[in-house]
Amino acid sequence: MGLFGIGKDDDPEAAAAVEEAGVGAKTANAIVGKLMDIGIDGLGPLDSVARVVDEALGKKGDREKAIDDIVRTHIKMGAAGGFLTGIGGFVTMVASMPANIAGFYVLATRMVGSIAQLRGYDLSRPEVRAAVLLTLVGADSQDLLAKAGVVGTGRLAQVAMGRLPKAAVMVINKGVGFKLATQLGSKTLSRFGRFVPVLGGGIGAGVDGFLMNRIADHAREEFPAR
Fold this sequence. Notes:
0% strand, disordered N terminus, globular
């Protein structure tokens, strides 16, 4: 599901961070669009959400146990890092995004999509996909919903189950794409670049595993069983 153009007037500070990282708005949108497509529909050796869900259900026989299994697997994969760098064409497709960041968000998207599907949400609907994207940005999701004019309980399940105007979905997707693109800002990367090589890969693995677990907890809370 592609994202749409982001102007500097939408968020000047974020725009500056994107420019500082050398990532244009169109590139940022294309990256997130591809991450959504790959994370949900799968690519090469990376299974789709549908297959991940089917396999977990077949193994566990219970939806909540299947979710637990999927979350554990994705935390391990996120911590391992570099998993997606071997997929043909993937690195080229998201060349503007560091491979570990691209891989992390693809895995997080697939994990959240799996949780949503197992809880009864239809991933073919644009509102559900928008809600999955919003889960990736944590507390910022409420600001993005406000900008899109979506009012209500503040739960992402409301977004997923609603019938939002196409324009609102566009604004949500655009905002999430911008937020994720700013993760490439040189200030953020300089912090990681300064410490991770010295401290070793174990620190990076621990951070990625922690962040994946936090996203999983957020998804469980935001997508209650229907």
